[in-house]
Amino acid sequence: MSKCGGKDGCCATVAPVAPAAATAASPERAVFLIRNMDCPTEEKLIRGRLERMAGVDTLQFDLIRRELTVGHRLPSIAPLVAALTALDMAPAVISSAQDVGGAALAASPPRAAGLPPWLSLAASGLAALGAEAIAWNTGREHSGPVLVLALTAIACGGLGTLRKGWIALRNLSLNMNFLMSLAVLGALAIGQWPEAAMVIFLFALAERIEARSLEHARHAIRGMMALTPDTATVQAPSGDWLRVAAAQVQPGALARVMPGERIALDGVVAAGESTVNQAPITGESMPVAKLPGDAVFAGTINQQGTFDYTVTAPQSQSTLSRIVSSVQQAQGERAPTQRFVDRFAAVYIPVVVALAVLVAIVPPLVAGADAYAWLYKALVLLVIACPCALVISTPVTVVSGLAAAARQGILVKGGIYLELGRKLRAVALDKTGTLTQGTPQVTDVLVLSGDERTSRLRCAASLAALSTHPVSRALALYWQGERGDAALAPVARFEALPGRGVRGEVEGGMLYLGNARLVRELGLHDDELAASLAPLERDGKSVVVLCSATAALLVVAVADQVRGTSEEAVAQLRALGVRVVMLSGDNTDTAQAVGARLGIADVRGALLPEDKLRIIGALAAEHGAVGMVGDGVNDAPALARATVGFAMGAAGTDTAMETANVALMDDDLRKVAYFMRLSARAHAILVQNIALALAIKAVFLVLAVAGYSTLWMAVFADMGVSLMVVVNGLRLLRGPAPA
Ligand SMILES: Nc1ncnc2c1ncn2[C@@H]1O[C@H](COP(=O)(O)OP(=O)(O)OP(=O)(O)O)[C@@H](O)[C@H]1O
Ligand SMILES: [Zn+2]
Asked: What are the residues whose beta carbons fall under 8 Å from the beta carbon of 455, sequence distance 6 or more?
């Protein structure tokens, strides 16, 4: 297994093609629908062919949608089409700046015409069985009827495999189709006709079932999209409510939802109220109350009330569609295990072919053994060596894992994060907005020296009203609640001081509003002030001080509710053996008080954003892999520095969804532990599959050399393992075991 741990480490260098960023650098992009691409084998074939072409910069595969995006600098895409057609890939152009250059696209037919696949497969199976039966009953393998039935079986079930095998050979990309073709042709050549028929039929059957399984995993993702209704009830200019196609509705339109109806578009409640089941987006089963001003999401289910909402995004840009397309893109980027398996297969197949050749030639030549028997053994070896079980199992597992996460409201931005999750030994949690709700309320107002409460509070509120920081917002709201709309003072030269507070000129004098660090920097921190702050901070309250350039004037304390799920989330992380660290820009005593309530011993307070970044770096150096959970808005650098960055409450905010490696759609911190368990489970399944596949191959290798395995037994074993690993991978769709 790859020992690589970091996303900026060796992994990046083995990635065959860099994602999005590199694509953007290419002058031209062409997107193809590749109808005959449904497994990594075909991806490898295409990669091998196109990567060598001059003018082709990048290739991006999306096996779920069967799309290939080529970043290139060719004057026409005709050579691309020609190359894909030569690989029998039946390409269709989805989008390209240039025309096809006369290449006759329509002429490339989708996969084999004629009988429907299952029917021809059944015919192939019957013919193969018939050939076996006749050969067995008559005791003669080489009669006319046996030959006719065997050839029928191959014609009905095996032409696709033979054709792909031939294409693979011509492109010097030895894959399993090539191995099977070689085995079948070899069996025909040495007169094992019924066996040849059986082998090709079983292989075709296995391929078909595998394709269906991958389809199943893909469906789990596409199925999420099916949740959004096709139509929405929208108000026309005339004032009438009309039922229209949701895809046609523009942002700004007013839409109405009835009780029990699914919401068709993202929007903001304009009138009415209700509760909404947001499970399709966030995975949380408790309905959420919606009042005017609250955001609603396409695909979620309205409960009892009726309400109108203003549409904020077209259907194609809804949160749900962005989740789905992000998951689809994520599975196109290859996880480390997948790359390992690819590299393994690339070395392994040529080695096996060489070994088979040796087995066929050496014993007869050197020891005078029976040439026919050893040729047969060599063919069995070829079949056993088939790596489909290995090749197919990883994408199925990764796609299943991504889909299981998405269903829980966890958006994972790539298979690599699914693999890294289990390696996290330390997780840093932001305090405000992550462990706490981030909507604090004013609890205490202390006037220092003198007695001008109202005028000082007014100055503080005037500064606070200009900031969106939670502490400032609490203060501004408090003033509004106490004084109604009593006029705020005008503020000049307003400035935010990150990690400290704000400042601005009020009524001719410069005033500062901020934390203890700010007061200390102003040189106004003394024992008296410290004594008045201490009891508030010990209570876990955030304290800000209003200061002039020469004196501290007013202390305001705000208290933030700890989220109901935080304590359990911390306990779950600890149960996984993870070191939990709290990072906060708030005063140290405050942070420690909150940490004590949640069972977090390692609390770092009074941090500036660059301190957070440094601590993440230090934790990474100490533990290897470190996670960071924040809201993704002002802690983006720390999130980016972490091995896996988690953003909370991502459903509402675009930045959070974009900056994080893993976006949690709601505010439930327990999802971090869930994600880590899912990751561990995915890893266990990947290892099980690889071990299973290799073990069964090893057993049959011994049987084959000892002469106990026939060709069709070998195919049966190969098919059995392939199916077992696929079914094993699909189990991940149900998620990890509960905590
Ligand atoms: N605009 C502001 N208005 C009022 N106080 C502020 C402002 N900006 C910062 N502060 C004060 O500085 C402290 C640190 O702010 P910072 O934004 O770095 O951390 P935070 O995001 O509030 O907390 P955490 O790091 O726990 O999430 C805050 O707790 C607050 O006391
Ligand atoms: Zn196989």
From this structure: none
Of 577, 180, 194, which is closest to residue 382 (Cα–Cα)?
A: 180
Q: What DSSP string runs through 44-72?
A: HHHHHHHTTSTTEEEEEEETTTTEEEEEE
Binding pocket residue ranges, ligand 1, CB within 6 Å: 430-433, 467, 469, 471-472, 496, 499-502, 513-515, 542, 544, 584-586
Integer Cα distance of 684 and 678 in angstroms: 10
Residue ranges per domain, the chain?
Answer: 10-96, 117-219+328-399+683-734, 231-317, 441-559
**CATH code for residues 231-317:** 2.70.150.10
- The pairing of beta strand 301-302 with beta strand 231-235: unpaired
The angle subtended at Cα 36 by Cα 228 and Cα 121, nearest 5°, is 100
Whether 307 contacts 274, CB under 8 Å: yes
Instruction: Give the model confidence (pLDDT) of 73-105 as tens digits.
Output: 888 888 888 888 888 777 888 777 655 444 434
Looking only at Cα atoms, what is the longest distance across the chain? Answer: 114
Q: Are 427 and 628 in contact (CB under 8 A)?
A: yes
ipTM of the complex, rounded to two decimals: 0.95
User: How many helices and strands in the chain, by DSSP H and E?
Assistant: 26, 26
Q: How far is the CA of 445 from the centre of ligand 1 (A)?
A: 18
Q: Cα dist. 287→280, 300, 587, 672 in Å? A: 11, 10, 36, 21
Ligand 1: distance of its center to the CA of 612 in Å?
13
Pairing of strands 295-296, 267-272: antiparallel
Q: Ligand 2 center to residue 714 CA distance, Å?
A: 10
CATH topology of domain 441-559: Calcium-transporting ATPase, cytoplasmic domain N (3.40.1110)
The answer to whether 62 is a known catalytic residue is no
Tell me, which fold does domain 10-96 have in CATH?
Answer: Alpha-Beta Plaits (3.30.70)
Distance CA 62, CA 368 (A): 52
Measuring from atom 17 of ligand 1, which residue has the nearest CA? 499
What type of residue is 627?
G
Whole-number Å distance between alpha carbons of 652 and 561: 20
Q: What does the pLDDT look like over 539-573, one tens digit per residue? A: 999 999 999 999 999 999 999 999 999 999 999 99
DSSP conformation class of 438: S
Q: Report which residue type is found at 438.
A: G
pLDDT digits (tens, 9 = 90+) for 255-284: 999 998 999 999 999 999 999 998 888 877
Q: Do 76 and 29 touch, CB atoms closer than 8 A?
A: no
Mutate to test the pocket of ligand 1, among 429, 544, 612 (most ligand atoms within 8 A of CB): 544
What pTM was computed for the model? Answer: 0.80
Coil, strand or helix at 488 = coil
CA distance 97 to 646: 37
Residue 422 CA to residue 476 CA, distance in Å, equals 43
